[in-house]
Write a structure and sequence with these properties.
304 residues; alpha/beta; Rossmann fold; Methionyl-tRNA Fmet Formyltransferase, Chain A, domain 2; 2 domains; 8 helices; 27% strand; elongated
């Protein structure tokens, strides 16, 4: 089949690499344009664009796939089916009417429709998540489902490990779905009406650890944002200390206070405390909390 792949994120790049290794290699990859990234704010391609270049697949970058010239170029490929994965653009009625689109979504729909399903599943303390392949419709992640597979969320799992596993599951589901479509045996099932939740995009304010919340909730926040977005503790003076590898303690310093316990850095929370395993001072590399304490001493947290 003539397949076009629409994706942007690191998750989309991982799925693309696995899909391209099999019989359903896309003939064109569509991503958003390059944008400024990192501390230097230099222009860099979306991860899916970099993956396409490495795979030698033709690339089209556009700020709006629905724009007439972008739509014309897509349809000129003779595409039979489009595969959408973490693309970040809404697809308009004209394209939906012109081609069939299948979307890989990393959640067990209808739970966690929307932009950040992996992060929200971890933050919510879900014990199980998964991936679905669905047909794209006008509603947000609302189309009928062709395939699904679940996977447990480990007690200490972060976004990086869970997203990697879901990418492998998703690529396998996509390949199987495309096999069925090629033979005319693909069946789709409408999503259940019950259990619908939305995974809102992660906002900048959500990166800040809130000691006024419970330690467990903040540990889940850290894991959900590791390693791609990052969570931080705000220090006195306004600087930020990146944090990873949390462990929940039953007790610790007063809420909002930082303390050391041997090689551990501990943040007091409203309920319990967070032992922080790894930190990143401003402009520095990640290091163990013990190495940080030996080199910098105990920092003071900002007022809650």
């Amino acid at each position: 089949m003539r397949i076009v792949y629409l994706g942007s994120s690191g998750f989309a790049a991982a799925v693309l690499e696995e899909l391209a290794a099999g019989p359903h290699r896309p003939l064109l990859v569509i991503t958003p344009p390059d944008r400024p990234r990192g501390r230097g704010r230099k222009l860099a391609p979306p991860p899916a664009a970099a993956a396409a270049a490495g795979l030698g697949i033709e690339l089209m970058q556009t700020a709006d796939v629905n724009e007439p010239e972008s739509r014309r170029r897509l349809l000129a490929t003779g595409v039979e089916v489009g595969v959408v994965c973490a693309f970040g653009q809404l697809i308009g009625a004209e394209l939906l009417a012109a081609i069939e689109l299948l979307n890989l979504h990393p959640s067990l729909l209808p739970r966690w429709r929307g932009a950040a399903p992996i992060e929200r599943a971890i933050m919510a303390g879900d014990e199980v998540t998964g991936a679905c392949v669905m047909r794209v419709t006008a509603g947000l992640d609302a189309g009928p489902v062709a395939a699904r597979e679940s996977t447990p969320i480990g007690a200490a799992e972060d976004y990086g490990s869970l997203a990697g596993r879901l990418a492998g599951i998703g690529a396998r589901l996509l390949a199987g779905t495309l096999d069925l479509r090629a033979t005319g045996t693909l069946e789709l099932v409408d999503q259940a009406a019950a259990g619908l939740t939305y995974a809102e995009r992660i906002g900048p304010a959500e990166r800040r650890i809130d000691p006024g919340a419970g330690a467990r909730a903040e540990a889940l926040r850290i894991r959900a944002l590791t390693p791609h977005i990052g969570a931080f503790v705000e220090l006195a003076g306004g600087s930020r200390l990146g944090v990873r590898d949390p462990v929940v303690r039953a007790s610790g310093p007063a809420p909002g206070e930082l303390a050391s316990a041997g090689d551990a850095l501990v943040l007091g929370c409203r309920a319990g405390a967070l032992e922080i395993g790894s930190v990143q001072p401003p402009g520095r590399r990640w290091m163990s909390a013990g190495d940080y304490l030996r080199g910098h001493g105990l920092p003071a947290a900002a007022e809650p």
